[in-house]
């Protein structure tokens, strides 16, 4: 092998297999953030108590995820410094807006479950806009998923009785068919035993 061949093989980019092996682990922070956001709304709806510190913590955690996601792509200190400051200003604006919704005058207008949905909406918007500014489809998708969770959670709460009735209906139909199938199969077995 010549010297140029060894240099080319050393400079070759990592194989696609190594990228695929890290693929699930790269998505874990986004999945955790989405689960935490939905869990926060669910807890607020059940307990009827606002989780002010929880939403602030989640906003800061998503800010860290945004910086950590984009950091390996930056090659200069100036770009890294710009990333930190732009994300810091962006998420401070989101936190200020979230806290404006928690002022006592605004709180009197909104019930507690609605406040949590509003805070999730603001968090989703902040996440989506951060993804746009960073040109990160993963962060954009996280913002879209959080935003889609808002109407889904309110619809789910309103239609819980419908789901309960539908589940009872499906179980009843299933039991009816299962019992009738069991009764129909029992005489057939006795006929085979008599013929033998």
TrEMBL record:
Organism: Bradyrhizobium lablabi
Protein name: Uncharacterized protein
Record region (Disordered): 1-20
Domain of life according to the entry: Bacteria
Keywords, in A-Z order: Membrane, Transmembrane, Transmembrane helix
Amino acid composition bias (Polar residues), ranges on this chain: 1-10
TM stretches of this protein: 28-46, 52-71, 83-102, 114-132, 139-156, 162-181
């Amino acid at each position: 092998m010549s010297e140029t061949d060894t240099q080319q093989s050393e400079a070759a980019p990592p194989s696609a297999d190594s990228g695929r092996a890290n693929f699930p682990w790269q998505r874990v922070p986004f999945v955790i953030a989405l689960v935490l956001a939905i869990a926060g709304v669910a807890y607020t709806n059940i307990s009827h108590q606002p989780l002010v510190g929880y939403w602030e913590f989640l906003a800061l955690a998503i800010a860290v995820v945004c910086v950590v996601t984009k950091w390996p792509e930056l090659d200069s200190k100036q770009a890294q410094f710009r990333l930190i400051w732009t994300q810091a200003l962006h998420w401070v604006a989101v936190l200020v807006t979230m806290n404006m919704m928690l002022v006592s005058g605004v709180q009197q207008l909104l019930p507690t479950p609605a406040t949590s949905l509003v805070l999730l909406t603001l968090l989703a918007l902040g996440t989506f806009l951060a993804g746009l500014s960073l040109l990160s489809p993963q962060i954009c998708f996280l913002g879209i998923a959080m935003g889609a969770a808002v109407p889904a959670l309110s619809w789910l709460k309103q239609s819980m009785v419908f789901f309960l009735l539908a589940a009872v209906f499906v179980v009843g139909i299933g039991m009816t068919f299962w019992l009738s199938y069991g009764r129909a199969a029992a005489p057939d077995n006795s006929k085979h035993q008599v013929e033998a």
